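Z., the sequence and structure:
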Amino acid sequence: MRQIQHPGPPFPERVTAVPGAPVPLRFSLEAGLSVDVAIARGFAAAGCLGGYVVLRGGRCEPFRFVMPAASPDDAHAAWYSDTFAPEGSVRIERAGAIVGERDGRFFIHCHGLWETPEGRRMGHMLAPDTVVTEPVEAVGIGFRDATFMAAPDPETHFTLFGPVSRVQGGEEPVGPRVLLARVRPNEDIGTAIESLCGRWGIARANVHGIGSLNGVRFADGRRVEAHATEVLIHEGRTGPDGVMRIDVVDMDGHIHSGPIVEGDNPVCVTFELLIEEIPGP
């Protein structure tokens, strides 16, 4: 499997996770607010510290995003493109946002697909610089007892989200479990998810999240060779009927979608996940 060399020493624990008690979320991003503020308000209204939401519909203007790119120096193994600033209104087709904390405030990490006046595009939304003009639907899962915390990562030299628990007094979530998780570079994303579920005794789960892969190998034989990509899980499920269907954009801006194979899709920089246990035998 492909390997990417990051500038710092590999962190010993390659897959980390904490459990959380899920809070179903459904709200609209309010027109006139930046996307990060609008999402933060929805989470705060539900008393949630972090989680994951899928965004659909609505429009934004201005809209700002970047795509994956090669690093201009040896300080990082991958980097971002210059900022794209489409002229006019942009409609969100679908996007996924990991919500957590950075420097004591809500912080949003968002990948998605959108319709711009120049056509369909995909990338990493710059949420503070993107303003809602028509309400956007947000549906997902929040947590009052866990979140993602952004911190400097010595391995990649980026500031990255990692899962943290906010449980008080040794309490543990009851009912179906939901894991907040992070997968580090050079780990196959499918194998990491299956291993994590096995470790926690989860037989079947829905999988949500965003991240980056070092090239992509699809189940139908298609290949993406770019060492840096931006990825959104479109449909993820473990168990007998398991599937991992993703949307991905490469460094040339080409969008690829479909189910991927397990065992040959290594993480490039990071992958942030919610693994939602499906009750039943």
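Helices lie at 35-45, 189-200. The chain is about 10% helix and 50% strand.

Let me know what you think.
H.
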